[in-house]
Amino acid sequence: MELDSLYQEVILDHYKHPQHKGLSPTFTAQVSHVNTSCGDEIILNIILEDGVISSLTWEGQGCSISQASVSMMTDLLTGKTLEESGTITKSFADLMASKGTSAGDPQILEDAVAFAGVSKFPGRVKCSLLGWMAFKDAAIQAQAQ
Amino acid sequence: MTFSPTDVRKDFPIFNRTIRDGKRLVYLDSGATSQKPLSVIEAESNFYEFHNAAVHRGAHQLAEEATDAYEGARAIVATFLGSPGGSDEIIFTKSATESLNLLAYAMGNAPVGNRFALSSKDRIVVTEMEHHANLIPWQQLSARTGAELSWFKVTPDSRLDLNSIDEVITANTKVVSITHQSNVLGTINPLAAIVKRAHEVGAIVILDACQSVPHMRIDVKALGVDFLAFSGHKALGPTGIGVLWGHMNLLDELPPFLFGGSMIETVTMTSATWAPVPQKFEAGVPNMAQAVGLGAALDYLSGLGMDEVHAHEVELTGYLLDKMKTIPGIRIVGPTNTLLRGGTVSFTIDDIHPHDVGQYLDSQGIAVRTGHHCAWPLAKCMLVPATTRASLYVYNDEVDCDALVDAILGAQKYFGRF
Question: What is the CATH number of the domain that holds A100?
């Protein structure tokens, strides 16, 4: 079933058991993003220490795709340098722009390659990118501190 | 003749196609935009094929034919709405959104002394269930003029709270702009008390009729409102065409909004005077083929009979509500009976996000809308971040409703698997 390529087990698992959810009391930068077409929301806290992302925490509400994507992203980027995070972010953005033609690089994206199926559904690409857009914004703001 | 959605479907070419690998198209998103009968598609394409020319200009036969077709469409709209002043009270816009913005901007242009001029001493009234198109123009006009924005609250049973009508529509209220039927809840708002109170204090009443004109008989005189806006594409017509109706004496006094060609009487390098209504409000070459298509759409609806259309939708809504109520974990966001209610049914199921519900329904060939439906404040007031919305129209039948209910149960099973 085509739908199963969208709703991979690992995506639904992250939706049901979100990682790094609950905002840290302190942060280097905090951003709030919404998906204007559906109302999905996310608040993301980043703590940056010597160029390393030591903490990424979030709060939000939305569909399984947007929430699982944030959860997986925070798992993936915590402990990485900003430079590494740039590579991962670009790899994910490329995957989402692939319209189903790319399987994604598991070396870089790990479990997030599960989102390859989402790229076949143009209406859902925005959902999967909500958290990643928030992260880009947060990283810029944190660096400016 | 009995109303038959099966026969109606035959007039809509889109139902000849299938969805998602051969599934029957179950189109339950007419609240966003309706499908088009062949007569509308042909009317629009015939205009381009045989009569295309700029209306109200040109000394040639095509211009005459184009003008006849365009003005003919205006006459059809006037009859359809029961316009007491006939065709001259019908203004073509590109959408209902533009119709409402036209009013708000034109009022903003009104000089002191004009009945539409607003100041910080005045009040504008809307409701908590407005589509953004009938909220934000007034929000912005309020910010530009200093007029206070006030609104009717929505009760937990999805009705307007009219208990405080005298406190909401105060003596200094100049504009009351409300939706006839909520695009989220399906609630049809009772207008009599609101119109009476508004007119008592000298306010004008504007009706956002996007969700009512396509679905029920409308007689502007009987409704007692002063202005009415609707969009063509929700009423079987093309996109790019909307209507603003208003009483001639009001349209006469209302300043223009868009300036340019066609809307003038005389022009010098430093000044201009305005053409009579409706031309005063139709600057530029209008969406002619779309107006003609709208005329064909309203003719089609008149052929079905608007009372029959409404009766069909109320009956089908009752059928759908009864079936939906049997689904465990469902919450219908809107009235749960058919009293003063149209065929727009919003709901949530368990804690499955509407976007995921919509995706599953799509996999079954069912088209619905998900999200806040351009009524964010209403969603907040109903304590739901988003809903799934099924909206019924002339081509829907019990088979469609059964398919929806089966698919909702399927979605519960699908998302319950993890």
Answer: 3.90.1010.10
